[in-house]
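question for whoever is on the cluster today: can someone run the full assembly for these? two chains, 459 residues total. i dont have access anymore since they changed the login thing
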Amino acid sequence: MITLRNIHKSFGQLKVMEDFSIDFEEGQVTCLLGPSGCGKSTILKMLSELDGKYSGAVIGLENKKLSYVFQESRLIPWLTVEENLLYVLEGKLPEEILKERIEFFLNKVELTAFRNAYPNTLSGGMKQRVSLARAFSMPHDILLMDEPFQGLDDELKDQLMTLLEELICLDKKTVIMVTHDLQEASRLGDKIIRLIGCPITQSEEIRI
Amino acid sequence: MKQNKLREGFLILLFWIALWWILSIIANKFYVPSPLDTGKVLISLLSTALTYKILLSSIIRVLIALSIGIGLGVVLGILAGMYELVYKTLQPIIIAIKSTPVVSFIILLIILVEDAWVPSLCGILLCFPIIYYNVVEGYKMVDTELISMSTIYKVPFHRKLKKLYLPSTLPYLFAGVLTSIGICWKGTIAAEVIAFINDSVGQQLYDGKVWMDYDHVFAWTFLIIICSLCIEIITKRLIKKVKYYERFKVI
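^ ran it for u. tokens below:
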């Protein structure tokens, strides 16, 4: 179980969380639902230690490996698709397994033919697929996803969600996904949690 | 297209030579030698082996200054970009170097070190702050989203430096290098003049002035400009060969 306990968080004068606690069950896909700007992404930043300026405790992440899918693809422009994957993976896996793993996930996201392409030559959807390949190829215990389909058209979103379902099924790990789209959450999530209040004070599980 | 450009360049050059000629007619020809007189001296200089020896010695001084200035600027610039404390510690000395007139440097260096080192050291002091500031700027301009991505994926520092920070900083570094070339030449030659360096371009300029041989001064100045241009062109070509920069340009 991963727990955020009695979290108080503010950005300057703006309080975003007040005595907020939440549990995430391991091996499940948990979708966090809430309106834009309510502090959903902040929860992911706390979990990934990108944001350490808060009071309270984050429990259950000790020795856990994290992987992350960002809202934007965050690819290094001067590295090719394959080099972008190698950038995060090198040294974390033996050389032979590394190559195989990259090959496997590039194949999964149907970008094997673009392994030597630079990000500026790829479409938005393709970049996000590279980002998914990077996140899944990284050995991890917990996958954090911050609105990974933001700004994509419906068709592309549907394609990527199908891909994501497939990838999640491949390797059942703990997934915490932030979204403001109930449809996305109901399709991908084992559990949907709605964040309540502004600042966030509590949460409730939504059953569909 | 290329022919048009060449024609245009030739006409511009002709315009400035014509203007120089008119100026030499209006002013006293003794003080402002005509392009023809300068050309004659230039040809005689170029037919002497000593000229090449003198040019080479000055070029070596400039190249030493540029290399050390660039090396120092890159290393300290990256450290200052990484650690705020290094930046703050270096800031007073960098400001002092930037604000000190070249002549002060030269005189101080003449007092403190052997004369032979003065031109190169002066060149280093002139180009180091430019490179340093450009590298710091480039380092600070690295995309914060890529930095946070690297942090989450626990990318080791040496790889971040090689694949993220250095390529991001390169365009700034190259801009600094190109600016430094001209400044380094000016500083090094000025130091050669004031420190009386034997067999140097600076000494030739000084001798020309002392012996009122202004044709000579003009011809040597022309050679300095040509050398500076050559170094700049070679540097630009080398920069083009750097893969990272080429990739960056299309983004």
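summary bc i know u wont read the tokens: The radius of gyration of chain A is 17 Å. The first helix of chain A runs from residue 40 to 47.
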